[in-house]
Amino acid sequence: IIESTPPGARFPLGSGRDPDIGENSLQNYQLTPNPLFSLVVRESPDGTKQPELVLEKVLDREKQINHHLILTAVDGGDPIRSGTAQIKINVTDANDNPPVFTKEIYKVRLLENLPEGSLAFQVKATDGDEGTNAEITYSFSDIANSARRVFALDSRTGDVKITGPLDYEEGKYYEASVEGKDGGGLSAHAKVHIDILDVNDNAPALSLLPILDPIPEDSVPSTVVAVIKVRDRDSGDNGDVSCNIDGDLPFRLEPSSENTYKLITASLLDREKLVLAKALDREEAALHELVLRASDSGEPARTGTARIRVLVLDANDNAPVFSQAVYTVRVAEDVPVGSTLVTITATDADEGLNGHVKYS
């Protein structure tokens, strides 16, 4: 009997035979008490009694597949004699159970560096029916194109694999709906929420905006030379960046705003004289090559670098210096007029007109 059979349905049973006659012949049938089935005895015009099994309540194969009853035929003699037959009822499946997902919402967290082809997660649904009525096919019923490019669902197993590159910086969150449909056409739906977790896969990048180029050597300390912007596409500690300058140079970085620094001139300590030296001295270094280094706080940390060439412009900060402080010349009194008595020289460390020496 299929489980979808409505109550009230009748199923004729085999008739008993009794060779006696009259009251000694077959008079009635009895059925083992059962809440699901009852017995009706129908009498034909020739007096033959035909038993029929009546379904009283809805069957449920998922609760009980088999039912065992005993049909008894009794006569009216004294003593009463009887015969029995077994009734074995097999309840066959009807597609009366839709698929049920193991979760209403699947919450998934994936690292963005998972390789393509990796198993991201699995959806699973069960069906209380059997056979094709319990065979479930999975599909995405609602999914954005951005998610469809990176996830693929196996219709048979419910496995969801990564088919494209995950990138936290491009997509932090995906949402989809999954449908499970059995062979009889009944279906169920579940939501999938996918969070992409950041991995420190981006090094800091530095961009420069020169302010003074070249810079005069007589610039006062804290003169802004350039503005540096640092950008790290990662998040959290992976995007938390600090910046510094390599080497002992007359410049320092000063935070300006979020991820922005000012490169400014700075006085240096003269270790021999233990005093602060002036920030810039073209005569010592006309060109400074700076290496800016930005590092994030990820594990392991990533580093980005940038180079700046700072040309120092001359200022007239050096007086001419004679080759000697005193020139002593011995001249004979009869030396001809116009004779060269002595050559004096002076040098100036500056350049251009600032270093051109005139004598008087």
From TrEMBL:
GO molecular function: calcium ion binding
Example of a GO biological process term: homophilic cell adhesion via plasma membrane adhesion molecules
PROSITE patterns reported for this sequence: CADHERIN_1 (PS00232), CADHERIN_2 (PS50268)
Superkingdom assignment: Eukaryota
Region Disordered: start-end pairs: 1-20
A Pfam family matched in the record: Cadherin
Ranges of residues in domain Cadherin: 1-101, 102-206, 215-322, 323-360
Alphabetized InterPro entries for the sequence: Cadherin-like_dom (IPR002126), Cadherin-like_sf (IPR015919), Cadherin_CS (IPR020894), Protocadherin/Cadherin-CA (IPR050174)
GO CC terms, sorted: plasma membrane
Location(s), subcellular: Membrane
Main location: membrane
Key words of the record: Calcium, Cell adhesion, Glycoprotein, Membrane, Repeat, Transmembrane, Transmembrane helix
Membrane topology type: Single-pass membrane protein
PANTHER family assigned to the protein according to its UniProt record, in alphabetical order: CADHERIN-87A (PTHR24028), PROTOCADHERIN GAMMA-B3-RELATED (PTHR24028:SF73)
Protein name as catalogued: PCDGH protein
Organism: Corythaeola cristata
